[in-house]
């Protein structure tokens, strides 16, 4: 087989590995993303528990980069501190390394089973959960198949005359080897794929043992940089976590490379098998970075916040860039895309308000109360700008599809702004009353309200995603969940009345707060669900009236 054919086969096998990894990750995100994010947010209590949560979350998503993006959004939204975010990401790096260890087992027998089960699950039902389960199983089958193909594709490289010359040179020039591995990991956007490729080449005795540690260190440095590059245009506070990971993990790999020059640690100490040695070196590096880096996560976070966040605090509102570019009004489709981007800003701020308001119910914080009020003012301003911008688009010659998009976007913006008003005007007032009167909900009542709040937050995310993906299945699911929230309200009302009849003192004191909060959540949920109506109506999936 010619050298070109060998590299084409190897490139195809690596491409399948990257695609399969993405397929599994997106399947898990779509099926269980909201649940996992909520569990992760609740688990981030301190550095140790955050690192443990990051470890398991990275195993679930098979990607530390995905965890980095999620945690960055949590920090930007004020859900967790930068210190906790960096600790979570250090744990996620170890979790990603653990995934590599699991995938190194001989699981070839599972390939046909997973492919068959994935196909059956995907075709068995139109239900979203079944189809995503099928996607996950099929993706795992493809992932294992790609690993076998990488091994088979690299077999002819044993007889290559050029490759040993290149590797022998790199064995003497560790800095170049380190940089090439970092570039490869960045290009793949996956440390899992990079390390598995190195392990496969080592299994074929193509990688000289002295080259293993520099390459693995370089791959880890490149993987740390991925998150920082992907968030370079995000809010300044969101960039602290991935940059903190670069500072700790990146510096750790550079220190380890310097120590390797001085001490020359042989990879055979980790395993006699070269492929396993690659994986165990990778695990050891990430475990060491976690152990030694965790105590410094607070110092790194404060330093980066001082560089990035503090200057922005004074001028953030004055320098906020709007996507509503007047120059694009002559191009209606581009102008509508600009308006959509600005509506997503309103969505993000509304979601922050929705999460924070229940934190105020649980523990009063005047600063958070002021921030919610400020967010509502910001939403009002952006909503006004969007409304005027869409009106100016409508003055141009629009085709039927663009006119419908314009109208639907305006309707969605109005609904989201109304939801924000309910939070800032109604629910914030109730939270303040609860604090001023020192009122406490009954344990059962608070559990009911919390369950309802979690459901509304999930539906809010579904509704906001519809503005981008226009997924019919998501729209159907959102409207179905409206009925679920209505049932939660009905059940809670009945149980609340039952507690009043039985003389529950806490329920008696918090009765009006409980019922009003419940109805506020129901109204907010209805506003979010109505965002799906235009899409369903276009597809002929919506009744014109509920009357028989």
Task: Please give a structural write-up.
It is a single chain. With 548 residues, the protein is mainly alpha-helical. It is 81% helix and 0% strand. It contains 21 helices and no strands. The chain crosses the membrane at residues 6-24, 44-61, 67-90, 102-122, 134-151, 174-199, 211-231, 243-265, 277-301. It comes from Ciceribacter sichuanensis. It is a multi-pass membrane protein.
Compute the gyration radius: what is it?
Answer: 27 Å
Uncertain runs are 310-319
Largest sheet: none
Number of helical elements: 21
Terminus-to-terminus distance: 71 Å
Structural class: mainly alpha
Strand content is: under 5%
Overall helicity: over 70%
**3D shape:** globular
Query: What is the strand tally?
Result: 0
The SSE string, one letter per element, is HHHHHHHHHHHHHHHHHHHHH
Mean pLDDT: 84
How would you summarize the topology of this molecule?
Blueprint: H1 3-43, H2 47-61, H3 64-77, H4 82-103, H5 110-124, H6 128-154, H7 162-172, H8 174-188, H9 191-203, H10 209-230, H11 240-263, H12 274-293, H13 297-315, H14 332-362, H15 366-394, H16 400-436, H17 443-469, H18 472-501, H19 505-509, H20 511-529, H21 533-538
Helix pairs in contact: 1-2, 1-6, 2-3, 2-4, 3-4, 3-10, 4-9, 4-11, 4-12, 4-13, 5-6, 6-9, 8-10, 9-10, 9-12, 10-11, 10-12, 11-12, 11-13, 14-15, 14-16, 14-17, 15-16, 16-20, 17-18, 17-20, 18-20
């Amino acid at each position: 087989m010619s050298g070109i054919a060998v590299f084409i086969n190897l490139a195809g096998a690596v491409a399948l590995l990257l695609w399969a990894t993405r397929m599994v990750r997106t399947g898990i995100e779509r099926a269980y993303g909201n649940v996992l994010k909520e569990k992760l947010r609740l688990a981030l209590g301190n550095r140790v528990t955050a690192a443990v949560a990051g470890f398991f979350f990275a195993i679930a998503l098979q990607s530390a980069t995905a965890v980095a993006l999620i945690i960055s959004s949590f920090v930007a939204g004020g859900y967790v501190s930068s210190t906790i975010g960096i600790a979570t990401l250090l744990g996620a790096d170890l979790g990603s390394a653990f995934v590599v260890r699991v995938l190194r087992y001989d699981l070839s027998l599972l390939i046909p089973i997973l492919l068959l089960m994935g196909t059956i699950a995907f075709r068995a039902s139109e239900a979203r959960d079944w189809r995503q389960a099928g996607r996950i199983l099929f993706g795992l089958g493809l992932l294992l198949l790609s690993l076998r193909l990488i091994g088979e594709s690299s077999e002819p490289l044993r007889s290559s005359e050029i490759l040993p010359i290149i590797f022998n040179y790199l064995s003497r020039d560790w800095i170049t080897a380190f940089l090439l591995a970092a570039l490869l990991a960045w290009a793949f956007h996956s440390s899992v794929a990079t390390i598995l490729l190195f392990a496969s080449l080592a299994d074929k005795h193509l990688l000289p043992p002295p080259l293993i540690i520099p390459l693995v260190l370089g791959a880890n440095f490149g993987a740390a940089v991925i998150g920082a590059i992907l968030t370079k245009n995000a809010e300044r506070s969101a960039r602290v976590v991935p940059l903190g990971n670069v500072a700790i993990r990146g510096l750790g790999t550079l220190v380890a490379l310097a120590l390797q020059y001085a001490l020359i640690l042989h990879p055979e100490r980790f395993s006699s098998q070269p492929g396993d040695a690659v994986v165990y070196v990778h695990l050891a590096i990430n475990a060491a970075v976690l152990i030694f880096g965790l105590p410094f996560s607070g110092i790194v976070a404060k330093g980066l916040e001082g560089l990035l966040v503090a200057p922005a605090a004074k001028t953030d509102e004055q320098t906020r860039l709007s996507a509503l570019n007047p120059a694009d009004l002559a191009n209606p489709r581009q102008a509508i895309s600009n308006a959509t981007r600005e509506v997503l800003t309103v969505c993000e701020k509304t979601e922050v308000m929705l999460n924070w308001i229940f934190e105020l119910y649980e523990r009063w914080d005047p600063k958070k109360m002021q921030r919610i009020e400020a967010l509502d003012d910001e939403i009002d301003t952006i909503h006004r700008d969007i409304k005027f911008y869409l009106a100016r688009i409508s003055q141009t010659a629009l085709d039927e599809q663009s006119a419908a998009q314009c109208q639907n976007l305006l309707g969605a913006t109005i609904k989201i702004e109304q939801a924000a008003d309910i939070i800032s005007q109604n629910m914030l007032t109730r939270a303040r009353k609860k604090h001023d009167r020192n009122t406490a909900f009954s344990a059962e009542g608070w559990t009911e309200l919390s369950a309802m709040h979690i459901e509304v937050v999930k539906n809010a995310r579904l509704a906001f995603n519809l503005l981008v993906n226009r997924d019919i299945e998501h729209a159907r699911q959102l409207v179905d969940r409206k009925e679920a929230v209505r049932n939660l309200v009905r059940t809670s009302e009945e149980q609340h009345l039952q507690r009043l009849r039985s003389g529950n003192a806490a329920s008696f004191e918090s009765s009006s707060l409980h019922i009003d909060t419940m109805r506020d959540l129901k109204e907010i949920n209805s506003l979010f669900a109505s965002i799906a109506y235009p899409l369903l109506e276009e597809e002929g999936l919506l009744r014109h009236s509920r009357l028989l």
